[in-house]
Amino acid sequence: ATNHLGHYLLTNLLLDTMKKTANESKKEGRIVIVSSEGHRFAYREGVRFDVINNESAYNSFYAYGQSKLANILHASELAKRLK
User: Fold this and answer.
1) DSSP 3-state assignment of 50?
2) Which of 8, 43, 58, 64 is catalytic?
3) Which of 11, 43, 48, 61 has its CA 20 to 30 A from that of 54?
4) 43 is catalytic
């Protein structure tokens, strides 16, 4: 969860400041969310919201992939919303 939630929280905490600065300076900023090829190794169904805290279904390899997939989905949604 930390692999994704850290990016998500920091981005959301800074978003209003970034928008204000862009309006005042007339220069757009950039948000960079780091991911990796690890997103290819997420659980088959993607982000498993229904069993996110299920210890018996946990696999560290797939969980890492899930967090990287969440980073990509977050970046994609931000790009749509901030156009």
Assistant:
1) helix
2) 58
3) 11
4) no
Residue 50 tokens read as 């229904």
Residue type, 38: G
- Write the DSSP symbol of residue 3: H
The tokens describing 32, both together, are 């960079």
**Dist CA 50 CA 34 (whole Å):** 25
How many other CB atoms are there within 10 angstroms of residue 45's CB atom? 10
pLDDT in tens, 11-57: 999 999 999 999 999 998 888 888 888 888 888 888 888 887 788 88
Q: State pTM to two decimals.
A: 0.80
| Closest CA relative to residue 48, chosen from 69, 28, 29, 31 | 69
Residue 39 near residue 71, CB atoms below 8 Å: yes
